[in-house]
Amino acid sequence: MLLILVLAPFAGSLAAICIPTQKGTAAAWLAGSIALLCLVISAGLYTVISSGTPLRYDAAWLPELGLNLTLRMDGFAWMFASLVAAIGLLVVIYARYYMSASDPVPRFFALFLAFMGAMLGVVLSGNLILLAIFWELTSIISFLLIGYWHHNANARDGARMALTVTGTGGLCMFVGLMLIGHIVGSYDLDVVLSSGNVIRDHPLYTTVLILILLGVLTKSAQFPFHFWLPHAMAAPTPVSAYLHSATLVKAGVFLLTRLWPVMAGTDEWFWIVGLAGLTTLLLGAYFAIFQQDLKGLLAYSTISHLGLITVLLSLGSPLAAVAAIFHTMNHATFKASLFMAAGIIDHETGTRDMRRLSGLFRYMPITATLAMVASASMAGVPLLNGFLSKEMFFAEAIETHKYNILDTLTPYVATIASMFAVTYSIRFIHSVFFGPPPQDLPKVPHEPPHWMLAPIYFLVFSCLVVGVIPALTIGPFLHTAVQSVLGIATPVYSLAVWHGWNLPLFMSLIALVCGVGLFLVMKPYLTTSIEGPPFFRRLEGQRIFERVLVTLSWKWARSIEMRAGTRRLQPQMRILVAVALVAAAVTLLLQGFKPAAIAFRSIDPAFALIWLIGMICAIGAAYQAKFHRLAALVLLGGAGLVTCLTFVWLSAPDLAATQLLVEIVTTVLILLGLRWLPKRIENPDDPELMTISTRLRRLRDLATAVFAGIGMMLISYTVMTRELPETISSYFLERAYSEGGGTNVVNVILVDFRGFDTLGEIAVLCIVALTVFALLLRFRPATESLETPEQQRVQNAFDDDHPDRKKGDSIAEYLLVPSVIMRWMFPVIGMLAAFLFFRGHDLPGGGFAAGIAMSIAFILQYMAGGTRWVEERLRIHPLRWMAIGLLVATATGLGSWLFGYPFLTSHAQYASLPVLGKIPLATAILFDLGVFALVLGATVLILIALAHQSVRAPRAQMRAAKMAAKENA
Amino acid sequence: MNWIQHLIILPILLPIITAAGLIPVDERNRTLKGVIAFGSTLVVFIISVLLMRAAANAPVGTPGTGVYLLGNWPAPFGIVLVLDRLSALMLVLTAVLMIATQMFSMAKWHRAGHHFHSLLQLMLAGVNGAFLTGDLFNLFVFFEMMLAASYGLLLHGSGMVRVKAGLHYIAINLAASSLFLIGVSLIYGATGTLNMADLGLRITTVGPESRMLMEAGAAILGIAFLVKAGMWPLGFWLPATYSAATPPVAAIFAILTKVGVYILLRLSMLLFGGDAGISAGFGQSVLLYGGLLTIGFGAIGVLASQAMGRLAGYCVLVSSGTLLAAIGLGNGTVIGGALFYLVSSTLTTCAFFLLIELVERARDAGADVLAVTMEAYGDIDENEEEKEIGVAVPGTMAVLGLCFCTCAILFSGLPPLSGFLAKFAMLNGLFNPGGLGAEAPISGAEWTYVSLLILSGLAAMIAMNRVGIRTFWTSIEGTIPRVYLIEITPVLLLLTACVLLSLQAGPAMRYMDATAKALSQPQNYIGRVMSAPRAGETGAN
Prior knowledge:
The structure holds 2 protein chains of 2 kinds. By secondary structure, chain A is mainly alpha-helical. Chain A folds into 4 domains: 1-165 and 233-255, no CATH class; 264-534, no CATH class; 566-680 and 692-725, no CATH class; 745-969, no CATH class.
């Protein structure tokens, strides 16, 4: 049953979304019946609840973490649930007539139902975390409800403020509730409610209290978080009537009451809750007087009444708690009816401005009468329910609970606030219904449809009945609720109307008389004054909030983002190197790292010379990298060559051969690409550009680079010169031939031991080639690099000067001899590649080297003959080669599955062929073939991508020329 | 060997084969390519789910379960793939993201450049490889594969902004890759092994000299992953890159930062866990404080973002920071929650990146800047006439708005979806490391973590709220974007996954907790790998 109670509204909400926009009435019926269902269910549960044992529903959700779908209904929860459902039903009926026919109401009712569900969830949660969940849900849905008319800026701002304030509070509360769970050892409400002393005595109590109060005070719009509530009035009136009478703001009070038994009674509680409550009580009432907007007045009055309940709860006495619960209900009834009445006035006259309204009594007597009774209840006039709880409040205010100034002040503040309440209640009635007939109203007012008044009838009637015969009507329900909160601490209280001539009654009388007097004094001022109370008008919560939010969340955030971050590449690289340097240095130095002593004795002078050249090349390349790319590239090639030589020197022929081939190909490809890069910066050493900060920055970068380099050197030297630990390499040496079937260990590692790495690497190569290809397909060179290179210009000029030559002859003849040789080289290099490939498994070589070598053959052809010439003569399908390569390599690996071995398990044997003799045939050679095809394909693909730039360049040149011509014209 | 045992390698091989097959197919048959690639991803997804079930049901610590010896070479000499709960989880997550992205891209984005589907497949292979491998150098290879594909995908569609961001990205990642290599070689030089399980074994026995070098190597290696994970101050490239990428690419990039986080988690638990002797807890404080700073920076960036793309980029940073700090806390119960968070936040990020493009399709970019300056200087037109009749929201906008709300709720960790549950699980683990009820003091760093977690959620809420109101509530000229079903479906799919994750939080959380527990007992992992029998020898042993 409890589950249905909570889920039915959500289900209804989902159903309402699906109703088409025009079928407003259907949505209203749906919402009404859901609300009625909830009301019936909760009414039906009363007999169970009144026996005193809470009803529970448990379903596991995250049982390991103590979060379960636990619903729990005791008297207090029952009271709230009924309130939520009943007022929900009334508001639905009201809204059916309030909302315009052209309004897309299904959305409205969907949100409304969802909100009702969330609110029921809050009151019925039996688990703290579940409560937090529903709590935030009410914030989120109320955001959508307040912003329902989102085309109005006020609605947007109000909604956002409400969400920001209550959402923030909710997050704080969530942490607070988690801490309670931490203290108590369970999130279950029953456990928590029985552990009051544990919580109050825990060192974290104050933290918990502050966090939870942040949630409660923001939700219940208590000072200093009250400012969002008046702005939430931008919502449609039915929403206001619901949210600000029985639900949203009451959630805060609800939780405060719920946790009252376990948290109240301490000094911290008294001071924080009491101070917030008293301030709110007084300020809310004071502000309410000066509102010109009907709903604004009611909003501030709501704030003030919530303050009253908060004060009652702060006192820590059971009687006060009873009064708080009682007033919660009373306030819900009269405030809901007042909001509805305000909505009717707005609806029928087209304005809510009290300066424009007057004398409406003659047009709508029924509404007027109902509103009068309700506002009398708000003012605390005897024989109405508001009076009863107010009397209880006064009685409690007089009592001394703690000996401090706040407690002493309470009765005075209470009387003054009550006086204000009388004033604004009279004002509400007088300015709207009495006085001369209204002038130039947007609409001619008349009574609203009967069904629109029905909810108000009902509410006002209950105000009266409860006010006259409280003990017979509300008495038992209140008692059940009170008992479920206070348990054995439930005090003896009397709900009688007449308690004799006592101090509280005098306070009420004073408040009534003074309130009327104050109204008479203020009347002339109020009929013309501008919105908002004097003195405080400028100190508007909304302004401050917006300013703070913009400053914090926008201006400051922007400037911090700028300072703590960067979008430029250089600083990022600098940070990266520096961080890596620091990380390594700190790790090593903290443990007392001593780099191995560098020994110079046994160095061969020739080797040292090679390295010196290499180092100069490397440093030169870095030095020239930015301002002279060609030089940098050449120097880089130098450094690469030295690396090759080193490999040779240290007897690593495989590496040397591969390195050499890779050096050649990459250098050539980069050279080809260099042509299309934008022009370099002229005059890098221009003194104007070299400010002191630039110099300093460069110096710093240099230092970082030098340190990183030296550090790298020291570490590598240490690692290379120290005795090797027991490594896996000995295993490779032992088994390369016996199990891998090859004598060239490097190759066996590549295609067998770690063949999977190779597969990955060729895939990388494939990706890089595809990327370069895809990028260069879209590449359009910068206009400045479009013009013909200087050399070709000179050659063409030469042709032009000689009448016997055609333009382009020189370019064609230039390098004629080398190009012929290059063409001849094609088969030769092809043979070399085959040679490298086949000897790979036993001697230096292999698929990778062969692939690179073969691609050199292609590069030479392109260089010698030009793109068109080559492609007319050779079938070049690098994409296909790549695909085949990758597939062959993978398929070889998969082959071993057929024999029940894992991927890439190799098999080796020798096959004797005629003529060639014995040839090693390992399955690895197939794999190597795949490598070969892919490497060749990838390199050639990149080459083609670059080469085709020059095919496209003339077209681009033409386009650029056309553009220029157009601009000139 | 049983064919089921071969399943482990298929998430890597299948995409490679598909990609290879797709390369020569003409670009004009894009749809065909897309469908084939989608089919392949779908199969990978099914395999991943099977693997996850296998990992969840595997008996603890049996030698060889979930270990795949490549080339049939025994560990630590050959390369091994290792399947455990964590890697299986990541596989499934990746596959889900991939499915969504591919579906989305087939509406129009795959037309923006060449070889999109091949690159995507190769990236899938790379990411899956990185999750599965148990070998440090092989990890490098797959990392490179993933990065190379990401370069290509980032540049997909070309254009000034993309190429600029792309080149920054490439430069930084190449530098990070060099660090990776340096780190790996140092570790190899110090310990003589590349197998991660073997490393975990040797770390207790190496001499002080080697330990020092090995830790230096690990530190440098860690930097490379932190760059990938986007830790402050190494993650400035991230928002720019993610917001410049084409939407499906940005969406799939959501998994890349998580690869960095995954490896950090894996290695720190395996190498520097409780059993590591002197090295135990190495680098943990860096992760913790770096993570905290990252959350802070990310949250500030979220607030300071005008465009949704950058906002989402910063959300990625927040999520990374949260995870890094959670690892750095060194508390097993937090890690369970953090894994839940990882899944939830990755799904959300992916969905959000896809959604952004749909939402912004009908808007001009200048409007955002204008709206923000108006807000900052309070130039709101106050005399606007109030109409008290609601406006009907067109169906497309309603769906987009609903998705946006869901993303906002997930990002800011508001109830009731998985974003909230994840935060709850992490906080619960943090407050109650010994389970609910066990008294445990809360340290200063932990308090900082809690407050940053909440504040970052708040920042996301405020920023998403601002952006959402601007987009959905203030559209002055109500141009409705054209959205194809194939584009909104993946977004809905991802968000549904989040909803399911929330509904099934109990079982999901049990899986995560078991994963975290398995991570904190590396000896099981080590035992499984090191004693894995070779095929053909099973009978003999």
